[in-house]
Design goal:
The complex is a heterodimer of chains A (250) and B (334). Chain A is built from ten helices and five strands, in the order βββαααβααααβααα. By secondary structure, chain A is mainly alpha-helical. Classes of the chains: A mainly alpha (250), B mainly alpha (334).
Chain lengths: 250, 334
């Protein structure tokens, strides 16, 4: 089994793995936590309110949100209880269903993991959520927020109880695909591909300056022979970059 | 061949594996999402994990500040999560929880249960003594409405069903009790002081209200109201308190583990008891909503329900209801 230890002085959680290559996960700080929580809070508030509005409208037969003078079983079980359930069970249900994520956490790019980097069990997620009672005490998650600030792993009380951590769930960037061409330096190749991918997004002056720098480093500063007559400097530079990476161009 | 040329050649060879990384990442995501996988797929995922580790190690050395490395870090983390994902068998997990784990926790917490029960009894007797000796003190424990009702010779529980339907009453009661129970457990985080406060306050209030109703000749009627649900409800309060006390003790006396580790271990272990507590409190709420306020239920039937439900609780906590024998109750020493 993997053995976890925070070795790096920063916010990295470094986990020894059976493969011999350690796993590096970035622990999410209070900022990411707050962002995820506020997003989730908004979602569950809207979802609960939407249910309440729809159910109350059906119950009252018209758009009226106030409770009846003598609330009966239908009002409680059909309107109030589901709305409260949506609001209070949102985190636990979402975390179990989405394997340590909630919609807010997905937006914030964070995920709950065990110290071994795995998805926590349903029991651990339950313990984590039960301790919100303490974290939210006395108001606005004060205890939880202070705990995440002073704790070296930025864990709130619920995380300490469940043995979980919130980490940045890295969304890998699109990978450069070209592997042909004359360019031998892999890092430079990656740079060229990325520059070509972003060619249209960049200002002409900036992209031409970057292209010239890259071509100088790669030794391919001359415009390609196949460049169309009358082509602008911009087009020539782009074709020169493409030549460096295109298959069969060598 | 220079070292630089060799590294460039290695980098190029590495970058040519991008298609494999995409496939491996997609497979890891599919497995992480919990969709059913064949044995062959699972074995392929393990092999992916190994190959991604190798490529990541190369990328960290050859192109440490590149997007390729970032991509590989993400793919490796995803593959790690997929490979280390525990198997889930909800049915078996529940059976194991109620048949093996909860009885074991109850056995381990027997001293805590005894102490917390003792605390509640002492608090209850203190509350009774205080209000019995100094009747004016009831103002500290009960609301003015409750005091006025009892002074009129009535119980606040009478006619409850005329105001609120049984189902609503039940749901309100068990929701409130579950929150109190969870709070008693979580408050153990404050070195058990929060737990002791909640348990003692409940005992004190119960004793005080009993003394106050006794002064107005209503104690018998109050006990008749309470007996059906109260036996289990008060027991569950003691169980939640015991679980909270165990959490507090782990923080005060962590033993050889660190305080954080002891806290985590105690919270996860004693927290299992709360599953049983929540179920029992739902039952208590139903009894308190449907049976306790209903005058059609004679006292003998209330006693029967109360005692029967308490025995059911005993069967649940010892695992007897799920086929666990008495001999298995004591955990085997490793």
């Amino acid at each position: 089994m993997a053995d976890a230890d925070v070795r790096a002085p920063g916010d990295d959680l470094i986990i020894d793995s059976a493969t011999g290559v350690d796993l590096q996960l970035r622990v999410a700080g209070p900022g990411s936590r707050c962002f995820a929580f506020l997003t989730d809070w908004l979602i569950r508030l809207l979802a609960a309110f939407a249910w309440y509005t729809a159910a109350a409208t059906i119950y009252n037969g018209r758009l009226r949100l106030s409770a009846p003078t003598n609330p009966d079983k239908q009002w409680f079980l059909g309107v109030l209880a589901p709305a409260l359930a949506i609001f209070f069970l949102y985190h636990y249900v979402a975390e179990v269903a989405l394997h340590g994520r909630t919609p807010g956490k997905i937006v914030a790019g964070v995920r709950i993991v065990t110290p071994e980097g795995a998805t926590p069990s349903a029991g651990a997620l339950l313990a984590r959520n039960v301790f919100r009672l303490i974290d939210s005490f006395p108001v606005f998650y004060s205890i939880g927020l202070v705990a995440t600030i002073i704790n070296r792993r930025h864990a709130r009380i619920g995380d300490l109880a469940a043995g979980t951590l919130l980490i940045h769930d890295r969304v890998p960037a699109p990978l450069p695909t070209a592997t042909g061409g004359t360019l031998q330096d892999g890092a430079l190749r990656e740079l060229v591909v990325e520059l070509l991918q972003r060619w249209r997004e960049l200002e002409p002056a900036s992209r031409q300056r970057l292209a010239q720098t890259v071509l100088t480093h790669s030794g391919g500063g001359q415009p390609p022979e196949g460049a169309p007559a009358g082509a602008s400097d911009d087009t020539r530079l782009r074709l020169a970059l493409e030549r460096l990476t295109q298959a069969g161009a060598a | 061949m220079s070292a630089r040329s060799r590294d460039q050649a290695l980098t190029n060879a590495l970058l040519k594996r991008s298609e494999f990384w995409r496939t491996a990442l997609a497979r890891a995501r599919r497995l992480s999402a919990g969709r059913a996988a064949t044995v062959a797929e699972a074995l392929t995922a393990v092999e992916d994990y190994r190959l991604l580790a190798r490529d990541l190690a190369s990328a960290r050395r050859l192109i440490p500040d590149s997007r390729t490395r970032e991509y590989l870090e993400g793919a490796y983390a995803q593959a790690h999560a997929a490979v280390h994902r525990a198997a889930t068998h909800p049915g078996y997990a529940l059976l194991s929880l109620f048949r093996d784990q909860i009885p074991r926790v109850v056995w381990e917490l027997r001293a805590h249960i005894a102490w917390v029960t003792g605390l509640m009894c002492i608090a209850g007797l203190s509350g009774f003594y205080l209000v019995h000796t100094y009747p004016d003190l009831i103002g500290l424990f009960a609301s003015p409405d409750l005091i006025a009702t009892v002074e009129r010779g009535e119980l606040w529980t009478e006619g409850l069903l005329n105001i609120v339907p049984s189902s609503v009453l039940s749901a309100q009661i068990f929701t409130n009790n579950i929150v109190v129970s969870l709070f008693a457990f979580c408050a153990g985080f404050l070195f058990a002081l929060g737990t002791f406060y909640i348990v003692a306050l409940n005992g004190l209030m119960l004793g005080a209200v009993l003394a106050f109703t006794a002064q107005h000749g209503l104690a018998g009627r109050l006990l008749a109201f309470m007996v059906a649900h109260g036996c289990v409800e008060l027991s569950v309060m003691c169980l939640s308190g015991a679980a909270g006390a165990a959490v507090g003790e782990a923080l005060i006396r962590p033993g050889e583990a660190t305080r954080t580790e002891a806290f985590r271990s105690a919270a996860m272990r004693s927290g299992k008891l709360l599953f049983a507590c929540v179920l029992l409190l739902i039952g208590c709420g139903l009894i308190e909503g449907y049976v306790s306020p209903d005058p059609d239920f004679p006292v003998w039937s209330r006693v029967l329900i109360g005692v029967g439900y308490w025995l059911f609780m005993l069967g649940l906590l010892t695992g007897w209801l799920f086929g666990r024998s008495r001999a298995q109750l004591k955990p085997v020493e490793p």
